Amino acid sequence: MAKIGFDIGGTNIAAGLISDEGTLLKKGSLPFPQDKDFEKVLSTCEQLVKALEEGNEPVESVGVAVPGSLDATASIVLNAFNLGFCNTPLKDILAERLGKKVFLINDADAAVLAEHRIGSLKGCTDAFMITLGTGLGGGLILNDKLYRGGRGHGSEPGHLILYNGGRRCTCGNDGCAECYCSATRLVTDGKSYGWTTAKAVIDAAKAGDDFATAIFNKYVDDISSYLASVINLLDPERIAIGGGVSAAGDFLMTPIRENTWRKVFFNERTDIVIATAGNDAGIYGAAFIAE
């Protein structure tokens, strides 16, 4: 039976009807309530379910991806600051409201799961994925399964410490990988030269600008140090890189591969590829956890 997957973000709530074979049959999206009113969030979810089920068989299960941390039972959203959720028992509330079984998953984990089922990590037993966006998200596939943490809290690859005493992270610590490997790092380093987006820095580097090239090369060097550390710890078969920065394609990926492979302890190279599940990865991954 088909399942519905939700990808709840601070700008939009997207949802899709996914077949048993993993095909996106129907999709819808509505704005996330900007006042973060929880009742409006629930009503928006109800509207989307009704629209997706129209003309189709009613679904029994719904998966929901949220950009925040979950408790060990994946029932309570502990913190999703962009949504205004804090210690919110979303699973039970939404299940009662929709009259369906509901399953929660972190949005980065949902993307990794989608990549493993239908994207560039398909067929891998052990793999790692990062998304280079405003922050640094990602997750792990271990022993052919999504790794959700030894105690059920998931993983936070963006908050590995890359530089002791380094830049202050939004989490409150200093030197997190997110400060050095996200798109925000390119914006931070480029703004004094008039570049206000990561794409602008990358485009300037492509055009041969010396300052942009220096910023970009340091960015690649930091990502490669991060990935080499992950490979030395986990020895994954493949690493997928997604997020907006990955749109730079080979201009980004070729130097990342070369720099990373130089730093890795092992002789056998881990594949480093661009993620292919696309913008609907959160919807797919959410639907895949719905039983």
Structure overview:
By secondary structure, the protein is an alpha/beta fold. The protein folds into 2 domains: 118 residues, ATPase, nucleotide binding domain (Nucleotidyltransferase, domain 5, 2-Layer Sandwich); 152 residues, ATPase, nucleotide binding domain (Nucleotidyltransferase, domain 5), CATH 3.30.420.40. It has a 5-stranded mixed β-sheet with strand order 3-2-1-4-8. The protein has a 5-stranded mixed β-sheet with strand order 11-10-9-12-13, with helices on both faces. A 3-stranded antiparallel β-sheet has the order 5-6-7, with no helix packed on it. Helix 5 packs across helix 6, helix 5 packs antiparallel against helix 7 and helix 7 crosses helix 8. The model has no long low-confidence stretch (mean pLDDT 94).
Task: Offer a concise description of the structure.
With 291 residues, the protein is an alpha/beta fold. It has helices at residues 38-53, 90-98, 107-118, 178-181, 183-190, 198-206, 210-234, 250-263, 281-289; strands at 3-8, 12-18, 24-31, 61-66, 69-70, 77-80, 85-88, 101-106, 127-132, 136-142, 145-147, 238-242, 271-274. Strand 6 and strand 7 (85-88) form a beta hairpin.
Fourth-level CATH superfamily of the largest domain: ATPase, nucleotide binding domain
SSE series? EEEHEEEEHEHEEEHHHHEHEH
- CATH class bucket of the largest domain: Alpha Beta
Judged by helices, strands and strand pairing, the structural class is alpha/beta
